[in-house]
What we know:
InterPro entries: VKOR, VKOR_Actinobacteria, VKOR_sf
CATH architecture: Up-down Bundle
Helix content: over 70%
Number of strands: 0
Organism: Streptomyces sannanensis
Membrane topology: Multi-pass membrane protein
Protein name: Vitamin K epoxide reductase family protein
Order of helices and strands: HHHHHHHHH
Family: Belongs to the VKOR family.
CATH topology: de novo design (two linked rop proteins)
Amino acid sequence: xTATTTRTTRTTETAPDRADxxxxxxxxxxxxxxxxxxxxxxLLASWVITLDKFKLLEDPSFTPACSLxxxxxxxxxxxxxxxAAFGFPNPMLGLVAYGMVICVxxxxxxxxxxxxxxxxxxxxxxxxxxxxxxWLQFQSLYRIGALCLWCCLAWVATLVMFCYVTTHNITQRLxxxxxxxxxxxxxxxxVAPLLWTGSIGMLxxxxxxxxxxx
Length: 214
């Protein structure tokens, strides 16, 4: 009787501890592939912009290959103050961040499972990323007055990444949300990134409407 009581007491005492440490959560292969693809797209864009930035520093007369016309002008973006918002070229931040996303996606493809704090940390990183990209979009369209095609690729990759990481965390109950929202995101997860990307495309179209139609 004493041994049974002792085991019962230990079980009762350790149960709250297990509740405080939620089980690790994995994800489907589709989500893992999405993180790898979007991370690779952002990494490619960051890599190309970084190389062109170095060439521009070596030779101020250098013209990046993606500088096609007065509007699509990567050189104008690279020479702006906004291109080094934190005191160093922005794409250097992308080299680290997108590389980490690829590693997370590759881990999921290998069957990795992550704790809640990890998923929330990833979500926080994508919130920062999409917020920073939104600021860069505004600066590009309405302050610098030029577009960088590689930057656009990074923007789309980041917003898709943010939407699907957030959707995953909500549907897996890692983030609080109404049950109706969870069901809606499970079935219509593609709506937010599609509308968001389309909205950016419309802003670009209307910003230089006369140039595109002239």
